[in-house]
Amino acid sequence: MEKLVQFLNTYRSISDAEAEIIMSHFELKYFKEAAYLFTGGNVCNSLYFVVNGILRICAINDKGLDITHYFIKEPQFCTMLDSFNNGNIAQGSIQASSSVEVLEISRKNLRKLCLSLPFMADLMDQINQQRLLEKIRLKNIYSGEDSTSRYKLFLREQPDIVHRVPLNHVASYLNVTPQSLSRIRRNVK
């Protein structure tokens, strides 16, 4: 739970009393690699803070292929944002791309937390906005690049992820086949 408070402290000073209130609303959970924290086709009612490990936002495309949209590693929040905020059905899923340790808070408990500590609503909005901008930035740098260039950019922008998640997840994130990724990796040293 310390990691959550440390993370929030990078945005705003959190007192010990506030930290206790915040932590009382979260539940520590562990998931093995490949476990689904949330499955698409439902409303996402949980927000996760990644304490340790890597999650991925994924979906099955119209060709039946498993696509990785984003990787979320520690220390970051993860949810299906539109679904969580507005109660809409989410198409994507949240899956553990490695063994993960997360702190989970339900939508209901987040509302209670924001009533107890009103600054948390603005703080969560600020964090979500920053993460969305980072996701857009990452998608934009990969856009229009060939597969080898995307892999090189991935190594530069997200170097710690490549050795911590299955290569088929990396391949689907970069929009290449696992076989193509193996060839690219052999040629990029």
Describe the protein's architecture and organization:
- The protein has 189 residues and is an alpha+beta fold.
- The protein has a domain at 2-117: Jelly Rolls (Sandwich).
- Helices cover 46% and strands 25% of the residues.
- The chain is built from eight helices and ten strands.
- It has helices at residues 2-9, 16-24, 81-86, 107-116, 119-142, 147-157, 167-174, 178-187; strands at 27-31, 36-38, 42-43, 46-52, 54-60, 66-73, 77-78, 89-90, 93-96, 100-106.
- The strands form three sheets. Strands 1-10-4-7 form a four-stranded antiparallel sheet. It has a four-stranded antiparallel sheet with strand order 2-9-5-6.
- Strand 5 (54-60) and strand 6 form a beta hairpin.
- The termini are far apart.
Nutshell version of this structure?
The chain is built from 8 helices and 10 strands. With 189 residues, the chain is an alpha+beta fold. The longest helix has 24 residues, at 119-142.
H/E element order: HHEEEEEEEHEEEHHHHH
Rounded radius of gyration (Å) = 17 Å
Corresponding CATH superfamily of the domain at 2-117: Jelly Rolls
CATH class of the domain at 2-117: Mainly Beta
CATH second-level architecture of the domain at 2-117 = Sandwich
* Poorly predicted runs of 5 or more residues: none
Mean pLDDT: 95
Fill in the CATH topology of the domain at 2-117: Jelly Rolls
Number of β-strand runs: 10
Shape from CA axes? globular
Structural class determined from secondary elements: alpha+beta
Helix count equals 8
Fraction of helical residues: 40-55%
Give the biggest sheet. Answer: 4 strands, antiparallel
Beta percentage is 15-25%
